[in-house]
C-alpha cells in the first residue's frame, strides 16, 4: 500500500478580516484563478480559488498574516513569456494602489528577491494585498 500523498489539494492563506473583495480582485482578476463555491455557512469568511484545471485550490480565510515571513506557495507557469507577462501584470496592478493591489513585487527585468543559485528556476516573488509571500516560477 502506498501511503505517500500524491498532490496538494489546497493551501490556505490568511488575510485580514473584511478583505474578501480584495482577495477576489487579486486572486481572481489579477492572477486569473477561478472563484469556486464555498460551503454556504462560510460564504462571508472564505474564498476558494481554482489553480488552473489541476484540481488544486488556494483557500483564503481570515487570520493573522506574517508580512515579513519567508513561507510561501510557489505557482508554476508554462513558459518564461507567461512568467514575465504575469510579473508585469502584478507589478503594474501594484502601482495603481487599487483594492487588491499587491504590496510588493519584484520588478520585471530586475533580479528576483529570492535566494540565488543555478538550482533555482526562472522566478519572481510578490506579496499579495495582505502581505502573503508568493513565488511564481517556470515549470521544469
Question: Can you tell me about this structure?
Answer:
This protein is of the alpha/beta class and 140 residues long. It has one domain: 2,3-Dihydroxybiphenyl 1,2-Dioxygenase, domain 1 (Roll), CATH 3.10.180.10. It is 20% helix and 26% strand. The chain contains 2 helices and 8 strands, in the order βαββββαβββ. The protein has a 4-stranded mixed beta sheet, covered by helices on one side. The chain has a 4-stranded mixed beta sheet with strand order 5-8-7-6, covered by helices on one side. A hairpin with a 6-residue loop joins β3 (46-50) and β4 (57-62). The longest helix has 17 residues, at 80-96. The protein starts with 9 loop residues before the first strand and ends with a strand.
How do the helices and strands line up, and which of them pair or pack?
Blueprint (H helix, E strand, L loop, with lengths): L9 E6 L4 H11 L3 E3 L9 E5 L6 E6 L11 E4 L2 H17 L7 E2 L17 E5 L5 E6 L2
Parallel strand pairs: 1-4, 5-8
Antiparallel strand pairs: 2-3, 3-4, 6-7, 7-8
Protein name: VOC domain-containing protein
InterPro entries: Glyas_Bleomycin-R_OHBP_Dase
List keywords for this structure.
2 helices; Glyas_Bleomycin-R_OHBP_Dase; four-stranded mixed sheet; 2,3-Dihydroxybiphenyl 1,2-Dioxygenase, domain 1; 140 residues; alpha/beta; VOC domain-containing protein
